[in-house]
Amino acid sequence: MIRYFVHRGGRTELVDRLDPAWLSPPATQAASSGADAGVIVWADVAEPVDADGVVLREVFGLQELAVEAAFQRETNPKVEPYDRYLYIVLHGINFDAIEHRFETHETDFFLSSKFLVTVHDGQRRSIAHVSDVCMRAQHVLGEGTVALLHRIVDTMVDHYRPEVDELEARLGQIEEEVIERRQASLTGDILAVKRDITTLRRIVVPQRDVVGRLARREFDLIGQEMAYRFRDVYDQFARMADDAIVFQDRVTGVLDAHLASVSNRLADVSKVLAVIAALFGPLTVITGLFGMNVPLPTLFGNPEYQFWEIIGLMVLSSTVLFIWFKKSGWW
Description:
This protein is α+β, with helices and mostly antiparallel strands. Helix content is 60%, strand content 15%.
């Protein structure tokens, strides 16, 4: 489904039908109709179908392969220049803390001086927000297609920060649990957070580079003023990329500390088991010796007390061995 936001005569309206004359160069518009001079069109394509692709190719004159890539929504962040427009791919994010994963949502842009085409899955918060703003504030779309693109991208970046903060809070919680609980079961949680941070870097770094190209005025469509605006967006992406590097170092340290803690705990348990086995060693020898079915020398005293004398010998031997362990620092 395509929604057409049209700005003409100082007003922005939502129309059902697109007049191809609106997409003509300004000189052609002025010659044909003074009322249509300076028309700006935003075509928002939500959940695109084949019929929408026909409109984009035949009416907007977009390249077929670019339209196909936008409809598949499996493209990495990038910017590609064409004759009359730019093809830009950016991704939004949604962090699901319960399932420990980042979900990426691609949004494709076709930018020219006369129109902006957005292609997405129909659930983009930034698109919904900016479309509402365009209908409430008539001047927004009148600022031009590049300014509209900046407004959408800036809104997307604003939605990044809460997701990154949520990831940081999750990482802080994991750090506290490693210190307090020291349980082997935390390994899965740490690796899940590590995967989320890796995904964050994979999402943010390419988009930082894309916005950086827009901020450097590599393309004639981007003027000096808009380049400054995109530079601010670039700075936000750069900060999040730096945060991702810091998070990566933190989670690596947490994982190392957790594995060391688990290893130390395993060593303590192994030491306890070794001491217990050593204490029972003399008992096993004594009971095995006196359990043989052969004549053995008797201990001191009355033969009726031989059992208790053997028990005492066993306790004494284990006690002496335990004291030796304590003095040697093994226990």
